[in-house]
């Protein structure tokens, strides 16, 4: 066991070295070129911030002030009225119960989706990376292709299948589809992570205790902290931000928050309350934004891993 | 007993994923291809009239909205390519000037964390014809500027492009930054010693060195463009008229709004073909890269 934990440490050290910065920063005197570059980057940063700024100020304005048309002005009176409307009484289709319905749907979709998608792909990735299984190579290749298949080509068959299984239009239907569609990419991510585990660890573990599941739970899972967090963040944001799966499989009863928001901003009967719309947009954006500002680096790792490995 | 289980467990553990692949991906794709050959309308029909098996495809390419979709796909692809250029410029500048790197990275990447529906909602509001940015620009005296792009068929696509570039430029910046950091630091000092100009250094040395990163970005961008759906729904709903239809939107409209299953399946098959055309170079590229890294090791 001592050897084993040493090897485990070695793997950890290897990862730490790889993520260390390549270039130590040196203090330089500010030159004219530096100032020009920083000025240019700041202008670009401004361009990235403008939409967020507009959305935030609009959500705190009254409709009277919005009708004056000064889009970039700060609110005369800061009011939470629009936030209250968006949360409690905004209309999505014919129901006017606000975004709180969609918010809770999104939360209830998120939990089983995470468990199903990560559970399915972590075991598959582990088996493909560390055990001699038949057809591992071709299977990985097929998964690689599946990761790129456009959703539209499997949309109708999946609707038929979920309808047959009587989960269409329910939280479970949406969660199962999330797990199915995420499986290829996540499996490839886990497999790429596990394949770097030294063969000696596996041989020692097989000698020591033997069974597939015991090794998984006692040795592999404790080593997977890094990758699990990266995948968790990737999945939370992509499931929360998903619209297409929610609108296709949510039916009437299990529409996530993004679907409510899309209904609110596109189907507008009577006078459009722009401040409500913007407050609703912010409410939908806040959960992933909080994650992003808390653990931005891991978020970026997840996104790039998902895009490139997938 | 343990020994036997350890031999069979890995195979059994792959059964769920194997079933999902077989049923939900391979089976479903074949099912849709089959449906595209039938006359299915609202409900699936499984009789194929072999004398005119291609009629759905014929109808598809005679459909104006589909031709608009294909045109818009190219426009959106070329327009969104700006995100790669923009991302590279941002990455190069951040990499040259290390000050404020983490702040700028955070700002340029936050749009990626937000749902495209939210992005669309924000830009839809900015492009609002009565109360949006146009009103503001006119009020400071520039009355000749037309900024309500989404309201007019000729410019609506540019609005969508602007929102997509805003959303994805940070992503390409992150990829480019990783590429730039992997370039040997000696190149910079060697170039300085030789007195190579900045512009020449980038166009003749750095960009050719990063061609793999650029190709990856281009492929990811193309695949993203084919999948573009959310942003269209949130910003224009395909309108005005059908001026912002794209294949992904067209296909789902044909299925859910028109209820024409065979026709929608044919469109979906064409989407798969488009994806394959872009995907094939990626497979070759990965194979090439693996061989190269294998040769190095």
What does this protein look like?
With 310 residues, chain A is an all-alpha fold. Chain A has a domain at 105-309: MetI-like fold. In chain A, 74% of the residues lie in helices and 0% in strands. Chain A has 15 helices and no strands. Chain A has helices at 2-19, 32-59, 63-68, 81-88, 100-130, 136-146, 152-164, 171-194, 199-208, 212-223, 225-241, 244-249, 257-266, 274-294, 296-309. In chain A, helix 1 (2-19) packs antiparallel against helix 9 (199-208), helix 5 (100-130) runs parallel beside helix 8 and helix 8 (171-194) runs antiparallel to helix 11. Chain A is globular and about 75 Å long. Residues 1-20 of chain A have low confidence and may be disordered. With 297 residues, chain B is mainly α. Chain B has one domain: MetI-like (MetI-like fold), CATH 1.10.3720.10. In chain B, 75% of the residues lie in helices and 0% in strands. Chain B contains 14 helices and no strands. In chain B, helix 4 runs antiparallel to helix 11. Chain B is globular and about 75 Å long. In chain B, 42% of the residues are buried. At the A-B interface, helix 2, helix 5, helix 6, helix 7 and helix 8 of A face helix 1, helix 2, helix 4, helix 5 and helix 6 of B.
| Oligomeric organization of the protein chains | heterodimer
Mean pLDDT of chain A: 81
Biggest chain pair contact, residues each? A-B, 96 and 97 residues
CATH superfamily of chain B: MetI-like
Largest sheet features of chain A: none
Uncertain runs of chain A: 1-20
Beta-strand content bin of chain A = under 5%
CATH superfamily label of the domain at 105-309 in chain A: MetI-like
Give the helix proportion of chain B (percent range). over 70%
Helix content estimate of chain A: over 70%
CATH class category of chain B = Mainly Alpha
The CATH topology label of chain B is MetI-like fold
* CATH architecture label name of the domain at 105-309 in chain A: Orthogonal Bundle
Question: Low-confidence parts of chain B lasting 5 or more residues at pLDDT below 50?
Answer: none
């Amino acid at each position: 066991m001592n050897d084993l934990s040493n090897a485990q440490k070695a793997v950890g050290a290897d990862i730490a070295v790889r993520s260390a910065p390549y270039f130590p920063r040196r203090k330089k005197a500010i030159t004219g070129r530096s100032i020009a570059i920083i000025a240019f980057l700041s202008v670009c940063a401004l361009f990235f911030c403008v939409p967020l700024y507009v959305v935030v100020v609009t959500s705190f304005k009254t409709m009277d002030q919005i009708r004056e048309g000064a889009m970039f002005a700060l609110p005369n009176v800061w009011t939470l009225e629009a936030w209250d409307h968006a949360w409690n009484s905004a209309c999505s289709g014919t129901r006017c119960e606000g975004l709180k319905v969609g918010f809770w749907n999104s939360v209830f979709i998120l939990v089983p989706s995470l468990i199903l998608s990560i559970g399915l792909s972590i075991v598959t990735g582990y088996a493909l990376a560390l055990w001699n299984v038949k057809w591992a190579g071709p299977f990985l290749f097929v998964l690689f292709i599946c990761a790129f298949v456009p959703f539209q080509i499997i949309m109708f068959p999946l609707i038929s299948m979920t309808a047959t299984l009587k989960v269409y239009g329910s939280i479970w239907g949406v969660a199962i589809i999330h797990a199915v569609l995420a499986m290829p990419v996540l499996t490839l991510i886990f497999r790429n992570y596990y394949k770097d585990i030294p063969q000696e660890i596996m041989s020692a573990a097989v000698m020591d205790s033997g069974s597939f599941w015991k090794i998984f739970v006692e040795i592999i899972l404790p080593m997977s902290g890094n990758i699990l967090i990266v995948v968790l963040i990737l999945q939370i944001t992509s499931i929360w931000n998903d619209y297409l799966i929610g609108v296709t499989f949510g039916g009437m009863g299990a529409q996530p928050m993004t679907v409510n928001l899309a209904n609110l901003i596109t189907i507008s009967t009577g006078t459009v309350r722009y401040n409500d719309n913007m407050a609703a947009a912010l409410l939908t954006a806040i959960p992933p934004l909080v994650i992003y500002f808390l653990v931005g680096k891991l978020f970026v790792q997840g996104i790039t891993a998902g895009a490139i490995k997938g | 007993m343990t020994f036997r289980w350890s031999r069979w467990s890995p195979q059994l553990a792959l059964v769920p994923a194997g079933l999902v692949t077989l049923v939900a991906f391979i089976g479903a794709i074949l099912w849709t291809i089959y449906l595209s050959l039938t006359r299915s309308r609202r409900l699936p029909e499984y009789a194929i009239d072999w004398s005119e098996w291609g009629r759905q495809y014929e109808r598809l390419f005679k459909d104006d909205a589909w031709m608009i979709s294909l045109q818009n796909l190219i426009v959106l692809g070329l327009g969104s390519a700006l995100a790669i250029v923009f991302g590279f410029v941002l990455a190069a500048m951040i990499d040259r000037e290390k000050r404020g790197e983490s702040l700028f990275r955070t700002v340029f990447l936050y749009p990626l964390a937000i749902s495209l529906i939210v992005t669309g909602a924000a830009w839809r509001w900015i492009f609002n014809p009565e109360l949006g940015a146009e009103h503001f620009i006119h009020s400071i005296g520039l009355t000749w500027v037309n900024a309500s792009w989404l309201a007019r068929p000729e410019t609506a696509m540019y609005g969508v492009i602007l929102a997509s570039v805003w959303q994805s430029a940070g992503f390409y910046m992150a990829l480019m930054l990783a590429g730039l950091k992997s370039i040997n630091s000696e190149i910079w000092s060697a170039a300085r010693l030789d007195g190579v100009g900045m512009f020449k250094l980038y166009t003749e040395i750095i960009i050719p060195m990063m061609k793999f990163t650029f190709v990856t970005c281009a492929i990811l961008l193309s695949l993203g463009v084919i999948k573009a759906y959310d942003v269209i729904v949130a910003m224009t709903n395909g309108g005005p008229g059908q001026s912002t239809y794209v294949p992904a939107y067209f296909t789902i409209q044909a299925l859910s709004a028109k209820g024409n299953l065979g026709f929608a399946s044919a469109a979906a098959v064409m989407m798969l073909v488009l994806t394959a055309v872009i995907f094939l170079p990626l497979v070759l590229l990965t194979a090439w890269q693996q061989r190269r890294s294998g040769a190095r090791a």
